[in-house]
Amino acid sequence: MNSIPFEQGPIRPVDEADSLLIRTTRGCPWNRCTFCSLYKDMKFSLRTVEEIKKDILSAQAYFDGHPFETCFLQDGDSFVMKTKDLLYVLTALKEAFPSLKRISSYGRAQTMVKKTPADMKEICDAGLNKLYCGMESGSLKVLEKVKKGITPESIITSARMAADVGMDTTQFIILGLGGTELSDIHAMETAKVLNIINPNHIRLLTIGVKPGSGLDRQMAEKTFTLPTETQMIAEQRLLLSTLDGITSHYANHHSVDLLLEVRGQLPQDKDRLLTVLDQFLSLNEADQIHFILGRRLGYYRNLADMGNEFICGRAGQKNQAEPSRFL
Ligand code: SF4
Q: What is residue 305's DSSP assignment?
């Protein structure tokens, strides 16, 4: 296949693997979060509607009638576009790809609250009916510490604005984001906000520290202490046990997460998910380390694999050979 003749951004959500990708903006209009280096060296810019329309027509020719049902608008925040421009792009997309049922985008809370309810309705009616929102935490202290540039109030207001017009929303949470210093407050205040907004989907990610990032510097300055994997599972247990009265789908969703089997529908699966977390937390320290190493080296997919003698034996040999990579 020839190289793609239209512009593509660097990432898309895991759930958008089969989607048409159309780039509306380049980079992130905020670009200051201490834990994120995704667009670090990229200057943010809005693409013109003419450029985007040209890409849509190139994509239409390139994919030659492929019946895409989903499209994701890249990069960091399409809501930063003027509403009339966003509507123009959505209309052009639906004309070029009439099979589209869902168009999605990242949406920053602080940008979305600048739209009016009427804008949100028009945007949703024009086809942008799914949002991916990186709230990361519901704690103001944590959000300020990592320079996220949003507040619990803006998270709640923007989530309500989206829900009121019928947009499906996914909220991303980052385990470990408060460090050991703010772990409990991160878990409890995040649950408190989630209990208010009741998003369609809650997706958990696990913190990683990129060399040279603001978080890396905070660690060097000893203002942020990275929790251990076990501490992050305990944090997740506190968060999940504090969720109450909501009907979200809850999942550890990314390969960076230790326990991928923590995935289910609230409220009916809550006890089952808590049991998985408790199973891990009740292991003795040696078995926890064995599982973490086996999981990170790719031998284990879930806790139940530890009961498989063959996999467990192979993971044990490998762990003895390579423990220093992870300890
Ligand atoms: S708003 Fe999102 S994309 Fe932008 S710097 Fe923060 S985490 Fe990264």
A: G
